[in-house]
Design a protein that fits this description.
By secondary structure, this protein is an alpha+beta fold. It is built from 3 helices and 10 strands. The strands form 2 sheets. Strands 1-4-3-2-7-6-5 form a 7-stranded mixed β-sheet. A hairpin with an 8-residue loop joins β5 and β6. The radius of gyration is 25 Å and the shape is globular.
Length: 191
C-alpha cells in the first residue's frame, strides 16, 4: 500500500467525497478516495462503497438507478445517481459502467475545473489537485451535464417538500349534525 495514505476498512460517500477510483494492490481491487479531508485507501471496491453508501440512507442502489433512469429515460446508460443527503443533493457520476472494476465515481461537487477540450480530459478538484480521466472530453461533458440536470431536479423536489413551502392548511369548520340529537338518546343503540 502507498505510504502515508491512511488505510480504512470502510467509508461512506458524503458531501466531502470528491472522487472514488479503483486502486489495485496485487490481485485485489480497493478504492482510492479523494475527499475534502485528504486521501484514503479503503479495503473495498468502489462499487461496494457506492452501494453501501446508498444503504446508509435507507435508499438502495437499484432505487437510485431507477430514479435517474425515470428522469433521463430507461435507455440511458452510465447515469449519474443521487445519494440522498439532508443538506443538498449528492450527485455521483460514473465514468464507465458502474459495476466495472475500472469505473471511477466523481462527485459533482468535487469538480472545480474541467480541462480544455483539446487536451486529454482532466478535472481539478476543489483542493487544487488535478486528476486525469480515461474518457473522452465529449463523453465526460455529456455525463457532467446530465449530473447538473439531475442535481437541479433533486434540488427542486427537495424545495417542494420543505415545510415552509407547503401551504398552510385551512382551519377545519365544525361539522353540523344533519339532525339534532336528543340528549336522552343512546348513540350506541341500533334501531
Amino acid at each position: 500500500m502507498t505510504k502515508d495514505i491512511p488505510v480504512l476498512d470502510s467509508y461512506r460517500i458524503n458531501l466531502d467525497t470528491y472522487l472514488v477510483a479503483p486502486y489495485k494492490e496485487g490481485e485485489k481491487i480497493y478504492s482510492y478516495i479523494f475527499d475534502k479531508n485528504g486521501e484514503y485507501i479503503v479495503k473495498r471496491k468502489p462499487f461496494y462503497i457506492i452501494r453501501k453508501s446508498c444503504d446508509l440512507f435507507g435508499y438502495n442502489y437499484n432505487a437510485a438507478i431507477r430514479f435517474s433512469k425515470n428522469f433521463f429515460g430507461k435507455d440511458k446508460h452510465k447515469v449519474p445517481i443521487n445519494l440522498p443527503h439532508l443538506e443538498a443533493p449528492n450527485i455521483m457520476i460514473p465514468i464507465y459502467s458502474p459495476s466495472s472494476p475500472n469505473n471511477i465515481w466523481i462527485g459533482l461537487h468535487g469538480i472545480s475545473i474541467i480541462s480544455d477540450p483539446k487536451l486529454p480530459t482532466e478535472i481539478t478538484l476543489p483542493d487544487g489537485k488535478e486528476h486525469p480521466l480515461p474518457v473522452s472530453f465529449t463523453s465526460f461533458q455529456t455525463q457532467y451535464l446530465r449530473a447538473i440536470e439531475l442535481y437541479k431536479h433533486v434540488f427542486n423536489l427537495k424545495q417542494e417538500i420543505k415545510p415552509e413551502n407547503k401551504p398552510k392548511p385551512k382551519p377545519l369548520k365544525p361539522i353540523n349534525p344533519i339532525y339534532p340529537l336528543n340528549q336522552d338518546q343512546d348513540l350506541d343503540q341500533d334501531d
